[in-house]
Amino acid sequence: MSGAPDVRMFTVGPVQENAYIATPDRASGRAVMIDPGDEPERLLAAAQALGVEIEAILITHCHFDHIGAVAPVARATGAPVYCPEIERPLLSDIVAWTPPEFGPFESWEPEHTVAGGEQLQLAGFDIEVLFTPGHSPGHVTYALTPAGAAGGEQPERAPALLSGDVLFQGSVGRVDLPGGDWSTLEQSIGALLERFPADSVVYPGHMGVTTLGRELQSNPFLAELRAARANAAGEGQPIRLATQAPAAVGEPSRR
């Protein structure tokens, strides 16, 4: 169980959110589901077709498009739900936080909360939980590595990063929603770039799959971060970032 994880993306609902089913090894029949935002019947059918049992449901943040299918999936699978601690009230009363043109969705009381810094062992994965606010106040990113893939005589494998709405292919999460903040989001992205290798695959909450290295090189929203990293590397100084989004590239993606 030391190879790359099998991560399947399912784009669901009117907001085109990416839900994921991840298994460290298809033969194990064990999996986690990340951000089931809508279309629960489709997600449950996909798990059945893959021949896996969902052993946990991981939530990156509690905007309605990422949690709309949590209740029916959790009920059908019996899988415990891991929810960002700060945003638990949104999942517990989803109707109050959902625009009237979407839904209806059902609230759910999560079995566990996370705040960042946790090390979870679920469904054959070693999972590091990272606090990555900026798009939303309690947002977390999950770094998934098949159990046993790190350490020993083999080089450490880059994890799969389930990044929610932090970093997208060519864009970033919007910061104009309640609790959003550009400088905080930029710091969160910078922390991911510092913590993980460039070939780490990013599985975002919208749009296509990418890598940390690709986004650092070409994402227009990371121009300030690229410059700060280059200056810091040349001068041996800590990275210093702007406090406002760069006006030249407009506001972050409306996701």
Helix and strand layout, with pairings?
Elements: E1 6-12, E2 17-23, E3 30-34, H1 40-50, E4 53-58, H2 64-67, H3 70-77, E5 81-84, H4 88-92, E6 112-114, E7 119-122, E8 125-131, E9 140-146, E10 160-164, E11 167-168, E12 171-172, H5 182-195, E13 201-204, E14 210-211, H6 212-218, H7 223-235
Parallel strand pairs: 3-4, 4-5, 5-6, 10-13
Antiparallel strand pairs: 1-2, 2-3, 7-8, 8-9, 9-10, 11-12, 13-14
Helix pairs in contact: 1-3
Keywords:
globular, 14 strands, 255 residues, disordered C terminus, single chain, 25% strand, Metallo-beta-lactamase, Chain A, six-stranded mixed sheet, alpha/beta, 24% helix
Report how far the terminal alpha carbons are from each other: 35 Å
Give the helix/strand class.
alpha/beta
What is the helix tally?
7
Number of strands: 14
Which CATH top level class fits? Answer: Alpha Beta
CATH fold-type name: Metallo-beta-lactamase, Chain A
Q: Strand content of the residues, in percent?
A: 25-35%
CATH architecture: 4-Layer Sandwich
Give the H and E element order.
EEEHEHHEHEEEEEEEHEEHH
Describe this structure in words.
This protein is an alpha/beta fold. The chain has a single domain, classed as Ribonuclease Z/Hydroxyacylglutathione hydrolase-like (Metallo-beta-lactamase, Chain A), CATH 3.60.15.10. It has seven helices and 14 strands. It has helices at 40-50, 64-67, 70-77, 88-92, 182-195, 212-218, 223-235, and strands spanning 6-12, 17-23, 30-34, 53-58, 81-84, 112-114, 119-122, 125-131, 140-146, 160-164, 167-168, 171-172, 201-204, 210-211. The strands form three sheets. Strands 1-2-3-4-5-6 form a six-stranded mixed sheet. Strand 8 (125-131) and strand 9 form a beta hairpin. Helix 1 (40-50) packs parallel to helix 3. The radius of gyration is 18 Å and the shape is globular. The relative contact order is 0.13. Residues 238-255 have low confidence and may be disordered.
